[in-house]
Amino acid sequence: xxxxxxxxxxxxxxxxxxxxxxxxxxxxxxxxxxxxxxxxxxxxxxxxxxxxxxxxxxxxxxxxxxxxxxxxxxxxxxxxxxxxxxxxxxxxxxxxxxxxxxxxxxxxxxxxxxxxxxxxxxxxxxxxxxxxxxxxxxxxxxxxxxxxx
Length: 149
Prior knowledge:
This protein has helices spanning about 1-15, 20-45, 55-65, 65-75, 75-85, 105-120, and strands at about 90-95, 100. The chain is mainly alpha-helical. Helix 1 packs antiparallel against helix 2.
């Protein structure tokens, strides 16, 4: 794509300085524009404007964090919809081991899990050197504040 755009720019520059005729410019600029258009259509992601994106995103986050709450409070139809959403390819039960098996989980839950894992891995600790002794804290009471040793 970059190469084609650079060639288009060079072509325009040559035409602007009179190095090529108008017919040649039209012929080659059309070819380059078609090639650029094909690449853009092949690799572009359709632009969808969602009017309430933030609201819908917050609802999705709330749902992923509270699936069990929605499952418990839902009727049969709602539970089936939740099951299809969470496990799009369905569930299978291993009767010998009494385990649920699935080959695919909704991508939203994979994203949520990756964020949860990142938070757990990055637990912040106080910057204390291991060779330092801990500071003493003064006691509080009716007597003047003193350090208990």
